[in-house]
Predict the 3D structure of the following.
Amino acid sequence: MRFLFLAAPLLMASLAFVTQAPAQEKENPIATEVKANLKDPSKPFTMLVRVKIKDGVGSKFEAAFAKAVTATRKEKGNKAYDLNRSAKAPNEYVVYERWQDLAALQAHMKTPHITTLLAEIGDLLEGPPEVKVFLPAGK
């Protein structure tokens, strides 16, 4: 099953972002996509990032994420950050993320643990991720 995505191949663009010189620094494409989906960037939101990895790389993928999960959960604006594997399809994962606001996500995308994670998992992915943004209901 091919993954659908909202705009450009976000992960590949994210990897390009990691390798840019600081003078050419631009907003991370994932943060840009989230921003486009928020009416009020100062409010909390949830992200689901769905990825499919290549066969035989699950342990390496999960190990790379383990380092980032611990560091991300310590970030001031992070409310939740969990990697989940499909019960039926072992090569499919969902990252559940909750953020205080867009600024917290933007800061997160620039942290060393995330730039390292994106560099480590780029070759492990079957294709680009699917990013969905959710807002708290009833507020």
